[in-house]
Amino acid sequence: MTTPPHSFEVRRMTREELDTAVLWAKKEGWNPGVHDAECFYRTDPQGYFAGVLDGQLVSSISAVSYGEGFGFIGFYIVKPEYRGQGFGLAVWKAAMEYLGDRNIGLDGVLAEEKTYEKSGFKTVYHNIRFEGVGGGFRPDSVEPLESFSFDDILEYDSRFFPVPREAFLKGWLAMPNCFAYGVRENGSLGGYGVIRSCSSGFKIGPLFARDGNMAEDLFRALISHTPNGPVFLDVPESNREAVNMAKKHRMVKSFETVRMYTKEAPDMSLSGIFGVTSLELG
Q1: Per-residue DSSP letter, 163
Q2: CA 102 from centre of chain
Q3: Measuring CA to CA, which residue among 194, 159, 156 is closest to residue 175?
Q4: Which end of the chain is more exposed for a tag (fewer CB within 10 A), N or C?
Q5: Measured CA distances, 23 to 4, 45, 90 (Å)
Q6: Are 99 and 91 in contact (CB under 8 A)?
């Protein structure tokens, strides 16, 4: 690996440059959401770093802070023609410095697992991306998520994420061409799911539920919005009910990632995660 030239700099990414990073992610086959960038950027505008060579964006990374205790790495991409020249390592160092002593998470491709281990990350579990076809009907047991209070949604969501993520959720649930449903139990939220438009088809995330039966009802409601297009779902491999649900709907595995953290695994219910929110922000 060579040392970047003096004309190279690492700085905070602009909102427009994040659109470029999302386009790169699309070319890498990650299938980002059509409207992800605005929500992602608002979650932590200081958490995006650009590697710039002679005024041109050549590398990117996100290092989103969820308060003082947790952060998440994503969008770690170098343009193909500039790889192997130190442009990626430079933005990586900036991202890690920004997140500091927080517990940092990421979803990495399997080929880079050993590389992340050298930076102090430890594998906790694998995520499997399944691809299938939507269609069908919405079960009577689910209702639009907007019928629940945001406070209830935030409290429930915090059971399946390391920390409360208020700013993120407000943006995520307000995205265009996004549909969200919940299940009511004893008068309060007992499970919820979201589906959004992506570069290819639609992607479900999150999908949190008490058990497989509830997750199944939410899943059916979500895919009813995609009768003619592909549907994608990222599930923790350790949640066998989630894996079986995907297979039941004839979804096929398209690729796999590793969820890694720099500290101990957060205390959250993996058995209730039937769909990971995103591989970029956790």
Answers
A1: S
A2: 18
A3: 194
A4: N
A5: 24, 18, 21
A6: no
Distance separating alpha carbons of residues 234 and 278, to the nearest angstrom:
8
pLDDT tens digit sequence for 33-59: 999 999 999 999 999 999 999 999 999
Domains annotated for the chain, with CATH where assigned, are: 8-105 (3.40.630.30), 128-275 (3.40.630.90)
Backbone angles phi, psi at 139, to 5 degrees: -65, 150
Rounded Cα–Cα distance for residues 149 and 22 (Å): 31
The reported pLDDT for the residue numbered 1 is: 56
- Intervals of the chain under pLDDT 50: none
The single-letter code of the amino acid at 2 is T
The whole-angstrom distance between residue 90's C-alpha and the CA centroid of its chain comes to 23
Q: Are 218 and 183 in contact (CB under 8 A)?
A: yes
Q: Is the peptide bond before 206 cis (omega within 30 degrees of 0)?
A: yes
Amino acid letter, 193: G
CA distance 265 to 105: 9
